[in-house]
Input
Amino acid sequence: MDFSFSEEQQLLKDSLQRYLEREYSFEARRKRIKAGTGLSAEVWRALADMGVLGLPFAAEYGGFAGSGVDSMLVMEAFGRSLVVEPYLATVLLCGGLIDQAGSSTQKAYWLPRIAAGNAIMAFAHGETDARHDWCYVSTRAERKGSGFVLRGRKAVVLHGGQAQHLLVSARSEGEPSSATGVSLFIVDAGSAGVQRRDYATIDGLRAAEIDFANVEIDATALVGEYAGAASTIDSVLDRANAALCAEALGALGALYDLTLAYLKTRQQFGVPIGTFQVLQHRMVDVLIHLEQARSLAYHAAFYAHASDTALRRRAVSAAKVQVGDAARFISQQAIQLHGGIGMTEELSVGHYVKRLTMINATFGNIDTHLERFAALA
Amino acid sequence: MDFAFTLEEAAFREEVRAFVRSHLPVDISRKVNEHKHLDKDDFVRWQKILYRKGWMAPGWPVKFGGTGWTPVQRYLFEEECAVAGAPSVISFGVNMVGPVIIAFGTPAQQQHFLPRILSSEDWWCQGYSEPGSGSDLASLRTRAVRDGDHYIVNGQKTWTTLAQHADMIFCLVRTSSEGKRQEGISFLLIDMRTPGVSVRPIITLDGAHEVNEVWFDDARVPIGNLVGEEGKGWTYAKFLLSHERSGIAQVARWKRELAFLKRMAGEIQSGGKPLMADALFSAKVTRVEIELLALEITDLRVLASDREGRAPGPEASILKIKGTELQQAITELMMEAVGPYALPFLPEALHADWDGTPVGPAFAAPLAARYFNYRKTSIYGGSNEIQRNIIAQRILGL
Ligand SMILES: Cc1cc2nc3c(=O)[nH]c(=O)nc-3n(C[C@H](O)[C@H](O)[C@H](O)COP(=O)(O)OP(=O)(O)OC[C@H]3O[C@@H](n4cnc5c(N)ncnc54)[C@H](O)[C@@H]3O)c2cc1C
Output
C-alpha cells in the first residue's frame, strides 16, 4: 500500500495549482462569473495545452490514460480555486460516456476534440421528478425510420446552455423508474425542437432546463447499446461523484486554512478568538471531518475505475456520505467561526460554502448514497 | 397543570383570527408564504393595521399603548399572526428600543418617540456592533464627545440590519475611556438624517442587501437624545439584549414554515414517489417537528414565569440557541427537499411582481438562498457560543 503520488502526478498537481493561483484568483473568477458566459475561452485553451482536458482518455485520442487518482488531483485543484468551467460536464461526464460506450468512430471523432478544447458538451440526464434517483428517466426515444425521435424535458443540466452537443438519456422501454431500457444519444444542441433555458446557479456555475420536442436524430447518434445504457451511466456517474468528492476536498481544505488563520488573527476580549477552548475543540472537529473525508475521497478516486462494480459503488457512495457530512459541518462552522464577516459576499468563505452545499445536491445527496451503500452491503 | 386553553383564551384566539383574516392584505401574506422579498412598505402597512387596532405593542405597559394581555394571550396573538402569513413586526422599535425608553427614558423622550414607534412613523435600527467589536461589544470605539448642547459622534457601526430603511438608530457610544470599559458607554438615539451620518450596503452571500455599515463623521446629536445617564449605556444594552434574545425563537412562525415544508415534501416527486414517503427524509422532518413542539412549550414556560413583565433572564439564551438551531434545520430541509432545484439562482424570482416562468417548482427559487441567509441566526443577537457562555455562567454558576 502506498498513499504517495507519482512524480508525474505531483508535477500535474503543482503546475495546475500554479496556473490557477496566477490566472484564477478570486477576483478573476468573480469577473468571469459576472460575464455570464459559463466558460472562459483562455482558461479552456490553457487547460487543453496542459493536457488536462484529455487526461482521462487513451493516448490515441490525444489523452494520457489518466486514472481516477489523476482526475482527483485536477478536481481538488479546481475545488481550491472554485473553478466554474465545464470540466465535469464536458470531460468527465460526456467524455466519459463516449469513452466507455461509444463506437470506435465516435471515440475517434469526439475524444480528440474534447482533449483539444474544441468541443463543449453537457450530459442531459436529470429530470424534474427524478430528484436524486438517477435511474429515473421519462424522456422517450421512439424509433422512426432508421433513426429516432426524442421527446421530454431535462432538468438542471450542468452547462447545458453552453454545450454545442448534448448527450441525452432517453427511454425506449419500461416505466420511468425502471433500471433498464435507457439509451444515450448525441444531439446537436442547435437541432430543431431543442429548446434551452440557460441560467446561473447559486454557486457560480451555469445550468439549463432543456426541452426536446420531437427532436429527430439519425441512427449514428446512438451511443452504445440500444436500451442498454444503464450500466454506463451508473459507472460514469460514479466517476463523476468521485471527482466531485475531490473537488469538495479542495474547497474544504481552503475553508480549513481560512478559518484556522482567522482564529489566530481575530481578536475579541483582548485575545485571539482561537484561545477560547470551545472554538479550539470546534476546529479540531473540523480537522477530523476533513481527514475522514480525505480518506474516503482518496479511496473513491482509487476505485472509481475499478472493474468490480460493487467495490466501485460502495467506495463512491461511502465517499459521498463522508465528504457530504464534512461539507455540511465545515461549511457551517467556517461561517460561524468567522462571525458576521463570514456571511458576506465579499469574502471567499461564503463562495466555498455555496459550492460545497451544491455538490451535496448533485448526483445524489447524502441520504441517497447512504441507502445505496446500505443496499450494497 | 393544564395544557388546555381556557374558554376565554379560546375566545380570544377566535377574535384575533377573525381580525387577522379580515385585515391582513393578501398581497402581503402571499409574499410571506411564498418567501418573496418584502419591501419596507409591506412591513409598515401591516404594522399600521395593528396600530389602528391597538395591537402594535402587546408587551408594553397599557399606559404607553400596550394591550395588557397575559403571556398566553400574547402567545396566541403571535401564533394567529404567524399562521395567517403576517410579516414579523420589525423588532428594533417596538421590542428593543421601546422597552428601553419606557424603562429608562425621560418623559419627553417617551412622549416623542413611543407614539412614533407605535404608528410606524419611525423605522429604527440597532447600532451596537462595530468591525472590531462583535462578541466583545464593550470594546466599542465609536466616540461621542460633549460640545455644549450636543454630542459630536465619530466612528463606524456595522452589520446594521435594514439601516437603509431607517429614520432613527439607537447606538452604543463611548463617552469616556476612563475606568472600566463598560462604564464609559452611553446609549444615544440618533436621527439618520443628521449631517455626517452615512449608510453603505453590505451584500451577504445569498445576494441580499439586508445589512449595512453606518458611518458617523462629526454627527451632532442633541444631548436630549441621551437615554438615562451618561456611562450607564451598558446596563440598558443588556436589558435590551435579553428582549432581543427571547423574540428570536419565533416558534409560531416556524410552525408555519414546518407546515410548508411538509406540504412541499408531499408534492415533490423523488424517483417518481412523493418525497414524504422517503423514510430518511421524513424522519428528519419529524425530529424537527418534535423539537419545535418542545421549544414551544419551553417558550410558554419561560413566558409564564414572566408575568410581571420583567425582562426574561438567562433562560432567554436557551430559547435563542434552540430557536435558531431549528430555524437553520428547517431552512436546510427545505433546500434539501427540492434536490437539484436548489441550484438555479434567479434573484428576480424573489420579487412578487416578477412574471417569468420559474425553473422547476415555483416554491424552489428562494430556498437555497434562504438556507445561506439563515446561517446568520446563530451569529447575531449574541452568537450561540456567547449564549452558551451566558448559560454556563449565570445558570450553571460555572
Ligand atoms: C445578518 C446579521 C445581522 C446583524 N444585525 C445587527 C444589527 O442590526 N445591529 C447590530 O448592532 N449588530 C448586528 N449584527 C452583528 C452581530 O451581533 C455580530 O455579528 C455578533 O455579535 C458577532 O460578532 P462578530 O461578527 O464580530 O464575530 P466575533 O465576535 O468576531 O466572533 C467570531 C467567532 O468567535 C466566537 N467567539 C467570540 N468570542 C467568544 C468567546 N468568548 N467564547 C467563545 N466563542 C467566542 C463567536 O461566537 C464567533 O463564532 C448582525 C450580524 C449579522 C450576521
In short: The first helix of chain B runs from residue 7 to 23.
